[in-house]
Amino acid sequence: MGEKYLYQPLTSKDKITVVLYRLGIVMSTVIISIIAYLLMSREQFYNDSQINTIANFLLLSLYVSIGMSVFFIHLYVSRFHRALKNLYYISLIGLLLLYAVSKGDIIGFISGNHGALLLIPLSCCLGFITAKEAFCFKLIEGYIVALIMPVLLVFLSAGIVSMEGLSIGAAAIAGMLIFFTMRKVFMPLHFDIGDKSAYC
Fold first, then answer.
1. What is the rounded distance in angstroms from the CA atom of residue 7 to the CA atom of residue 184?
2. What gap in Å lies between CA 87 and CA 81, rounded to an integer?
3. What are the tens digits of pLDDT across the range 129-153?
4. Which ranges of 158-189 would DSSP assign to H, the alpha helix?
């Protein structure tokens, strides 16, 4: 994890898991960028049902993409990985609650009923991933993304940030994620594996 030296030859499993992990990061970046664009241009949508259909699809896709990175991340300390997976399970409970309570109006519930709090566990999962990469490879924007995402959701839930503010924040996060992803995904695959004898 986070080593630039090739300690052992990579197995097929090593290569597949690293590709899936990075694919999750790419997908998350694309989805968040689309969400940011939609938030910035939401007046172009014809009706609430249209934007809610899109929001539902994007939200489910984001859970899948972040889940890919959560389950295929390589960490030397197994208890960190277990904690990350447990946090993801909590985020899934939040997703179920979000759908149950919002009655299909995801955007309205998130923007007006403290529903954004239910997305904090998911944002912390992605934040853990970006912070891990920031720590291992000095991708400083990873720390910034990890901090901004949950804070923005808390501020939105508390009414400190409007939907316009959310749009600006989401655009800033998307921009940093694009920069982060471009720097991460082209690294050699063995960078993510490191010394397998150190795993515990």
1. 20
2. 10
3. 999 999 999 999 999 999 999 999 9
4. 163-184
